[in-house]
Design a protein that fits this description.
By secondary structure, the chain is mainly α. The chain has helices at 3-21, 31-39, 53-66, 70-97, 100-111, 114-120, 126-146, 150-165, 173-182, 187-209, 226-230, 235-253, 257-270, 272-291, 302-317, 322-325, 334-346, 349-357, 364-368, 378-383, 393-408, 413-417.
């Protein structure tokens, strides 16, 4: 069967899954800030670490073309980019191993991975960014596996555009450089690729400098001291951070974590150049995500998770694990695994304690289940003047402003609570 038809089928299936699980009300976190910017028609004119230039402007373009409101335009981008990323993982593995079911299974594992699934279901930048990272990885594989030289140039295009979505993709630059070095004999393509990337990357700085912003504005933020705090941790905290990252890895990929590790070993033995290209990017992203001093650092692992999902496909394809490959159908049961984990933790005293403490935004449901339908909304929370046991003033401030804008457009408080 044609691989592009299968990719389209996967896109449609996961599009439906993500739509059914999408948020009912604007969730807590950064979501309200993104929706507010779109509601105010605030086109991003600078490419700072917090503005997410391409993401905001893409949502606004969707809004203007479809006449959808800010919430639905954001939802549309999240679901389509999320489903497209899953299809990209399928195409990457299919190009690499040439085996249909293994490629489909790898896509399913990634599509159901907690961090990715959760971020498709809310209003955030990471699902859209994952699409560009996925296309970057696919381009690399196309060159190594099929010798399609045009993808040498496309790899720079996709990574360069990814930087305009989220500056975190800067950690994949070493991967691009190693990749281009591997094909240094293709001088014309490498030169064009490098030139394109330099133009896209440097344009971030040029755009900001022309508007009076400092040189560091594309990668630095004056809204927090997260980078500085990252280097101020006690030694024991770094150790804890590393073990927490392993918990994230296993919760995302469950039993398929084994195949991901096995895939790394198999790739090292069969194609060391491609192995080192992905290894450099994976280590940089994983290291940054592990130790970065923010409470939601799990989202920063997503570029690594894409690489790891591709490695899972390579591990499943190995003849050495042919007997274990027969259980790959359990990928279909991953959603059930989340529910069972939630049920078990909720049955413990500690679980009930955490659920009660975090109940203002959904409790354990918010932290252990990736789907967000029938969730607790920040607008309803703010309108009812509820109090949280944690500082969330930056959320409620945006929620109040958004509420006032909606009221000016004729919405009642009852209607706003449902958003």
């Amino acid at each position: 069967m044609n691989k592009h038809f299968i990719a389209l089928f996967i896109f449609c299936i996961f599009g439906v899954i993500y739509y059914l699980g999408s948020f009912t009300k604007i969730p807590f976190g950064d979501c309200i800030g993104f929706v507010l910017s779109v509601e105010k028609d605030e086109w991003a004119t600078t490419a700072t670490a917090m503005s997410h230039f391409l993401y905001i402007n893409t949502v606004l373009l969707i809004k203007s073309l479809t006449q959808l409101n800010a919430i639905e335009a954001s939802r549309l981008l999240m679901i389509t980019s999320g489903a497209a990323t899953v299809s990209t993982v399928y195409l990457s593995v299919k190009t690499l191993v040439k085996k249909e079911w293994i490629s489909i299974a790898s896509a399913i594992v990634f599509g159901f991975s907690f961090s990715f699934w959760r971020n498709v279901e809310i209003v955030e930048v990471y699902a859209y960014n994952s699409l560009w990272v996925g296309l970057f990885c696919l381009s690399i594989i196309k060159v190594f596996s099929e010798n399609k030289k045009k993808y040498i140039i496309l790899s720079s295009l996709f990574l360069g555009l990814g930087l305009w979505v989220h500056i975190q993709d800067i950690f994949l630059i070493p991967s691009l450089l190693v990749f281009l070095f591997c094909f240094k004999h293709e001088k014309k393509y490498v030169c064009y690729s490098l030139l394109l990337f330099v133009v896209l990357f440097s344009s971030l700085f040029i755009l900001n400098i022309l508007q009076g912003l400092p040189f560091s504005s594309p990668y630095a933020s004056d809204e927090g001291t997260w980078v500085e705090d990252t280097f101020k941790k006690a030694p024991i905290q770094y150790i804890k951070d590393f073990f927490i990252s392993l918990v994230y890895l296993v919760y995302n990929f469950n039993v398929f974590t084994f195949f991901g590790i096995a895939g790394c070993i198999v790739l090292y033995r069969s194609n060391r150049n491609m192995f080192f290209v992905f290894l450099v990017g994976a280590v940089c992203v994983y290291g940054f995500s592990t130790f970065y001093a923010v409470s939601d650092n799990y989202v920063f692992f997503l570029p690594f998770n894409i690489i790891f999902a591709i490695s899972i496909g390579y591990g499943l394809s190995s003849a050495r694990y042919a007997s274990l490959r027969k259980v790959s159908w359990v990928a279909l049961l991953i959603p059930l695994g989340y529910f069972l984990c939630y049920t078990f933790i909720f049955s413990t005293d500690k679980g009930k304690e955490i659920h009660a403490f975090k109940s203002y935004k959904g409790g354990l449901n918010y932290y252990l289940l990736p789907w967000m339908n029938d969730n607790v909304g920040i607008l309803e929370f703010t309108i009812d003047q509820k109090e949280a046991p944690e500082i969330i003033t930056w959320m409620t401030r945006n929620a109040i402003e958004y509420t006032e804008i909606l009221k000016s457009k004729g919405y009642t408080e009852k209607e706003i609570k449902k958003l």
